[in-house]
Amino acid sequence: MATINDVALKAGVSVTTVSRVLNNRGYISEATRRKVYECMDELGYRPNEIARSLLKKQSNLIGLILPSVSHPFFGELATHLEYYAHQYGFKLLLCNSLLDPNKEREYIDMMKRNRVDGIIMGSHTLEVGEYKHINRPVVTMDRRIGDNIPFVASDNYRGGELATKLLVGKGCKKIAHICGNLELNLLANQRSEAFKNVVNQSGTDHVMIQTDMNVFDQSQYERIIEELLQQHPDIDGVFATSDIIAAFVVQICRRLGKDVPRDVRVVGYDDVNAASWMFPSLSTIRQPIEAMSRLAIDLIQRQLDESEFDYHNILPVELIEREST
Asked: In this protein, which residues make up the domain named HTH lacI-type (predicted)?
């Protein structure tokens, strides 16, 4: 059976270099990394993962808790997180909380038992105090839960501002804003704050409507949107805080005989892949999902290395204008 010494000899590098490649530590050129992996494949060398984890006191696992991976935004987020976790030498343990605090608590306990190296929280149903006793590196997505826990978010306020100003600039006289439940303490609520500020400053007539507490329950969207458009037939602009909600708006407008964008202009949020496939294609606010994912993994690694890092990480957004406006 091949050993790490055999790999080092065949690759023409030191055992320390092979170890660094395996553990993704220190600077290693891409050519050297590729050579080491090629020699490992040729020799059939497979590192003992259990021994490595005991030696380093690391499992090379990162726990990821999301509300629902079936939601397009979180599905894309999980894809990018897995990619960058792999680049850093980690594997992901993925859990869907379905916004159930008991499930979320059980998953955190399971991750502790499995000695994960860190946890990325995309679901936030527990009280803030419970996150502070995880005793693992933690990164939260789109929620600030304390001064000692780093978070990653896009610039939600700027996104809401860009979306609302687009509709005002297009001449919309009455704009509806459909958002998640604002009782949830999420940074995404800043999109709604920006909406209110822009319409008030411009003197634009408006109406706001919130989803139920389970903001990812798509079965409620159709009812909420149909009631909104029937009660306010003069709405000519809609800013929805997700592309999924915006897609339902386009669909129900068509059912009610309203043309998008002639009668109603629609803006979504996230820029999931499906936003460009829709007809009409959806104007939206692009969150930098890939950059957010890379940063989240890097923040876990920096905490493990006891390196410096920023606790507040807000990335810029971009307005993507398509056919729906």
From this structure: 2-56
